[in-house]
Amino acid sequence: MPVLVASDLDRTLIYSCAALALTMPDARAPRLLCVEVHESMPLSYLTETAAGLLTELADAAVFVPTTTRTRRQYLRINLPGPTPTYAICANGGHLLVDGVSDPDWHASVLARLADECASLDEVQDHLLTAADPVWVRKHRVADDLFAYLVVERELLPEEWVKELAVWAENRGWTVSLQGRKIYAVPKPLTKSAAVREVARRTGADLTLAAGDSLLDADLLLAADRGWRPSHGELADSGWTAPDITVLPERGVLAGERILREFLRASGERP
Q: Which UniProt keywords apply (predicted)?
């Protein structure tokens, strides 16, 4: 039976310039490979070593990119190695099979959201009225499933995020602050549910996972083994759990280490 590797992408395997954390002397910095271009500009990177490891991983396991990105945002990423058969986008709202969203999975997600939490319209209206234009740069809705704000972090009042989290909690939603983005996501919309579906379809009986944000916590808890870097929301909050390994690396070198751990764990399987 195959090993399933479900990994978050941004700030877990791939990194923007701002998130690279290249703290070593310039002459010792790793060679980087650009894996995403947006509006004719390079946007996301991994190390060339990580690129080789990711290609190796495709032979050792079923690799499933597992991201909060929308389908369009995910599809502009050009990862090294063979194109994954499965990918999870919109925090579990879309299960892509050969690049196409599975309609039955998406319909089941929509039905659950309608039954268990407040509507996207209600949450979006609240964000539009409660957020201060002084520090909000963009209001966005992702694949008609959840909403997020792009903000100026240095101007963002910390208490506002806490107040939003309380408001959202009472309506069946959760709030996550990642870099310059504040996400409001329905609680039933989870990466772990989609990963369990991929495990069912592939027959995998061992799941490995990695992630850095609060939206990855359910994914890590659902895996047999998980890893998180020493940066991101989970690190900032000191989050950990049984079978979760906290890696000392930060930035793009953490992505390289995570891929080494995936390969090692896949190879250790009896």
A: Hydrolase
